[in-house]
């Protein structure tokens, strides 16, 4: 099977490529990645020689057309993925998440190629802390940030291309991922590398916001399950019952690294900050038989801390730039 992975040099895409090479001997993997600030060629080093990396933009229609013509399936991870960046400047989000998805859809339509669209639970907006409800496939779209609005728009393009043109597509909407190779602008790796670099972790607002954490390997196993067994045209929610508030996440990182659990700073909150995400993945579990394996968040977090501790060459060159950028907007409010 010829597999074209867009965004395969980013966090989830690189982990997907590793797992595909390890578990699918029949797969010939090509990665299409623009190698933006979020990509890291070193993330693909463990599979060097076993894949082809093409540096290019998913909005380059001639390139996309040529690559899609020569593949059996497109798995579309490429995106601008960070909410804080979308608040500072949304333009790249519209370009990549909307125009890029359009470009891929036109190519898979023309060449009648199978397509799997990677999306996020943020398309559903947020939930109150005390709301017993969780997101399901039937929840109405209600995105809050420029990032989540462009992801919601991209999902709707996929649905329209399925219905109007018969494109052979599936969609998955997953909750917050953690694990190796995640860019250190994101919450968990930012705080782990803060502790490792002797910087106090930074908690937005009061830290009561809740995210539904899933290990990246569980996400990627679910993606293959949907590709193998999912129904064309359908959407599947991916989640591992991992709801934790942000303050608890920081306190657990501090505890696991042998620091006092109050050794962090409260900083200015994110504008429009979504309060809580929570996924009901009943459909994926009952219809397609998927189950998460990393069900102990604390032990998954400990493994992730070990990964960053053991791979300083991967993240240290990024650290000053990321923290300098945050320091232009972030104020300590202890
Ligand atoms: P990431 O930012 O780590 O990686 C994105 C990759 O896409 C990078 O390698 C980047 O270079 C590439 N890219 C960006 N613009 C491109 C373009 N125009 N052309 C080609 N490549 C381009 O992102 P991630 O966290 O790995 O997320 C991957 C996907 O999963 C995204 O679609 C995101 O919306 C979705 N998602 C992420 C999470 C999460 O918790 N991180 C959860 C659910 C869904
Ligand atoms: O829900 C899925 C989404 O999860 C994905 O679609 C996004 O691509 C991914 O980035 C993630 O979005 P979040 O905005 O939830 O993730 P982030 O890591 O930026 O922040 C997680 C929570 O931690 C959020 O409530 C904001 C908070 N936070 C974040 C940072 C960077 C802090 O308190 N301090 C920080 O320094």
Automatic annotation (TrEMBL):
It is an enzyme of class 4 (lyase). The keyword NAD applies. Residues 4-302 form the NAD(P)-binding domain. It catalyses: dTDP-alpha-D-glucose = dTDP-4-dehydro-6-deoxy-alpha-D-glucose + H2O. Its cofactor is NAD(+). Pfam families: GDP_Man_Dehyd (PF16363). Keywords: Lyase, NAD. The keyword NAD applies. GO terms for molecular function: dTDP-glucose 4,6-dehydratase activity. Belongs to the NAD(P)-dependent epimerase/dehydratase family. dTDP-glucose dehydratase subfamily. This is dTDP-glucose 4,6-dehydratase.
């Amino acid at each position: 099977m010829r597999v074209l992975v867009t965004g395969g040099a980013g966090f989830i895409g690189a982990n997907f490529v590793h797992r595909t090479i390890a578990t699918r001997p029949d797969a010939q993997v090509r990665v299409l990645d623009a190698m933006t600030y979020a990509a890291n060629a070193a993330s693909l080093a463990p599979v060097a020689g076993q894949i082809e990396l093409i540096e290019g933009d998913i909005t380059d229609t001639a390139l996309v057309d040529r690559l899609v013509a020569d593949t059996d399936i497109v798995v579309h991870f490429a995106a601008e993925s960070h909410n804080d960046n979308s608040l500072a400047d949304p333009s790249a989000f519209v370009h990549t998440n909307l125009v890029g998805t359009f470009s891929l859809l036109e190519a898979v339509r023309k060449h009648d190629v199978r397509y799997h669209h990677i999306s996020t639970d943020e398309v559903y907006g947020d939930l109150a802390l005390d709301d017993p409800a969780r997101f399901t496939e039937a929840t109405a779209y209600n995105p809050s940030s420029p990032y989540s609005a462009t992801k919601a728009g991209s999902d709707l393009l996929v649905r329209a291309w399925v219905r109007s043109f018969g494109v052979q597509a599936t969609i998955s909407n997953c909750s917050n991922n953690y694990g190796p190779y995640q860019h250190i602008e994101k919450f968990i790796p930012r705080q782990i590398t803060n502790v490792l670099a002797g910087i106090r972790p930074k908690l937005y607002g009061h830290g009561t916001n809740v995210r539904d954490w899933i290990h990246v390997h569980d996400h990627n196993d679910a993606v293959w399950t949907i590709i193998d067994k999912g129904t064309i045209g359908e959407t599947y929610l991916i989640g591992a019952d991992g709801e934790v508030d942000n303050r608890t996440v920081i306190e657990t990182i501090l505890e696991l690294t042998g620091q006092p659990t109050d050794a962090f700073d409260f900083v200015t909150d994110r504008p429009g900050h979504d309060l809580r995400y929570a996924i009901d993945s009943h459909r994926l579990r009952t219809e397609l038989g998927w189950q998460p394996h990393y069900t102990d968040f604390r032990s998954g977090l400990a493994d992730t801390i070990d990964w960053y501790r053991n791979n300083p060459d991967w993240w240290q060159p990024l650290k000053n730039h990321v923290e300098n950028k945050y320091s232009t907007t972030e104020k300590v409010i202890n």
